[in-house]
Amino acid sequence: MVEPFLIHYPSKDGKWADIGFWFMSLTTRRRNGKNAAVVSIHGGPTAQTINSFSRNIQYLVNQGFFVIAPNYRGSTGYGKEFEDANRFDMGGGDLEDVISAAEWIKKTGFIDPKKVVVMGGSYGGYLTMMAVTKAPEMWAAGVPIVPFVNWFTEIENEDPLLRQYDLTTMGRSHERQSPFAGTIAHQLH
Predict the structure, then answer these.
(1) Phi-psi bin for 188: left (phi > 0), alpha (psi -120 to 50), beta?
(2) How far is the C-alpha of 87 from the C-alpha of 170, rounded, in Å?
(3) Which of 7, 40, 46, 95 would you label with 121, given CA atoms 20 to 30 Å apart?
(4) What distance in Å separates the CA atoms of residue 76 and residue 124, rounded to the nearest whole number?
(5) What is the pTM of this model?
(6) CB within 8 A of 62, min separation 6: which ones?
């Protein structure tokens, strides 16, 4: 089992000192700029990567990958202001925090900049898809796991309690654009 290092790195906009966990491979600890890395994005966004057992991360590290798991703006555990920092800006500042994590790990000297993968589940899957779309030059690959891919169908089909949560974090701007606007508006009122 690999114990992570708690790391701090600046956000691109300088507003936050981002926090994450860095897992170094036991088999490839050479600072030769040839190793591969995975940026592992937690779901939520109101969740948090903590120093606990993750079978996925342990598997990746034991296969020779370096892993960085950022707690991007919107994550819990760093105060209400940080948790609310991506409200109505999902895929904006939080994505920049994920990119900052990738840039940080590339600067360690262990990683080949052309061998960095972004991966995440649920909201982390959404950020993974945003990452490969908005910054394709950063990544060798993207692995979105159970992402939501269409905001309109997400709102239309999800559980009503989750729908209310999503509307409070993303807003109602989709109602002006969605072909299902009347149906959504009717269900919400």
Answers:
(1) alpha
(2) 6
(3) 7
(4) 14
(5) 0.81
(6) 2, 25, 26, 27
